[in-house]
Amino acid sequence: MSGFFIAENLSELSEGDTVFLSDREQRHACLSRRIRVGEEIGLTDTMGRTANARVTVSSQPGTITARIMNLTLHKPNRVTVSLLQALCRRASAESAVRSAVELGVDRIVPWKSDRSFNSSSRRWSSIAREAAKQSRRAWFPVVKADIPSERLVEEIGDSLAIILDPGSNTRLSSLGNLFLQRKSVFLLIGPEGGITREEISTIPGICCSLGIETLKSSTASVAALSLVNFFLGRW
């Protein structure tokens, strides 16, 4: 398959129909991927529907049409996994977002923690979109607006909240059974300076660590999500 593109009107189409990509997706297909007539491409509406299609027209500077070969409707994940990622150094934060999407996270919430850098989550949505396309996801993750620590309780609600704290004696690997009992899970990843004791005392969650090592924020999110995927049977 030559590429994976967004076609938001897939829900209106059937097998054998012709699909027209948006200008943005057409430019990417023609100029970046150099898709040719006869090649097979993948499509998603970002809301659980995917399709395989064969290109019928491909011309410069950017026109692509394709005929749908088959359509698939994917169920959403039984347990919603949300990443509450503290704002940190730009490169570290954006790496965490990209990896989290590739690992299947359902929601990303930028968190202005007490020790967060004065950085921005402005690019997180576009990074998440491209990472979802690269990993050929049927359901694209939701990237929410920044929230301060004061809104964590409201955001988490009655979901299971796992707070990554390198000082905790509880290992995340020992909490597997808890994940099967909830419909929603939050992973809280602090900035490089860590989560303050004051913040931890106000968050209704379980503190745990990933071992004796202290991991970078971007590494911690990858390690934690990998374990969560295993607990939930996604892998």
Automatic annotation (TrEMBL):
Record-level GO cellular component terms: cytoplasm
Catalytic class of the enzyme: transferase
GO biological process, one term: rRNA base methylation
Ribosomal RNA small subunit methyltransferase E PUA-like domain sequence ranges: 21-68
Annotated CDD domains: RsmE-like
SUPFAM superfamilies, per the entry: alpha/beta knot (SSF75217), PUA domain-like (SSF88697)
Catalytic activities: uridine(1498) in 16S rRNA + S-adenosyl-L-methionine = N(3)-methyluridine(1498) in 16S rRNA + S-adenosyl-L-homocysteine + H(+)
Pfam entry (one): PUA_4
Domain Ribosomal RNA small subunit methyltransferase E methyltransferase: 76-228
Keywords: Cytoplasm, Methyltransferase, rRNA processing, S-adenosyl-L-methionine, Transferase
Catalytic activity, EC: 2.1.1.193
Predominant location: cytoplasm
Molecular function as annotated in GO: rRNA (uridine-N3-)-methyltransferase activity
Localization, UniProt: Cytoplasm
Function: Specifically methylates the N3 position of the uracil ring of uridine 1498 (m3U1498) in 16S rRNA. Acts on the fully assembled 30S ribosomal subunit.
The family this protein is said to belong to: Belongs to the RNA methyltransferase RsmE family.
NCBIfam families from the UniProt entry: PRK11713.7-5, RsmE family RNA methyltransferase
Record protein name field: Ribosomal RNA small subunit methyltransferase E
Organism: Tropheryma whipplei (strain Twist)
